[in-house]
Design goal:
It contains five helices and no strands. With 85 residues, it is mainly alpha-helical. It has one domain: ACP-like (Non-ribosomal Peptide Synthetase Peptidyl Carrier Protein, Chain A, Orthogonal Bundle), CATH 1.10.1200. The radius of gyration is 12 Å and the shape is globular.
């Protein structure tokens, strides 16, 4: 799951040329703005077939927070493997 989230962020933020790790802070380190946020939410919703509100995302500080939020919603690596086949 971590790899999938990192892939999405790298894809959206590629022009900012920032190294993205699980410890990266979305706003302070990666300079995620409101447009980036909308794109990230959209990609996460598409990839994981869920809905994420702007308020939920606003409370996420690091990339790892996104991963943990997805796991807390019951998503697992096993489900992602099945979905991608």
């Amino acid at each position: 799951m971590e790899d999938r989230v990192l892939f999405i962020l790298n894809h959206i933020l590629q022009k900012k040329k920032r190294k993205i790790t699980l410890e990266s802070r979305l706003r302070e380190d990666l300079f995620v703005d409101s447009i980036d946020m909308s794109m990230i939410i959209g990609d996460l919703e598409d990839d994981f077939e869920i809905t994420i509100t702007d308020e939920e995302f606003a409370n996420l500080v690091t990339v790892n927070d996104i991963v943990e939020h997805l796991k807390a919603r019951g998503l697992s690596d096993y489900e992602l493997i099945i979905d991608s086949v």
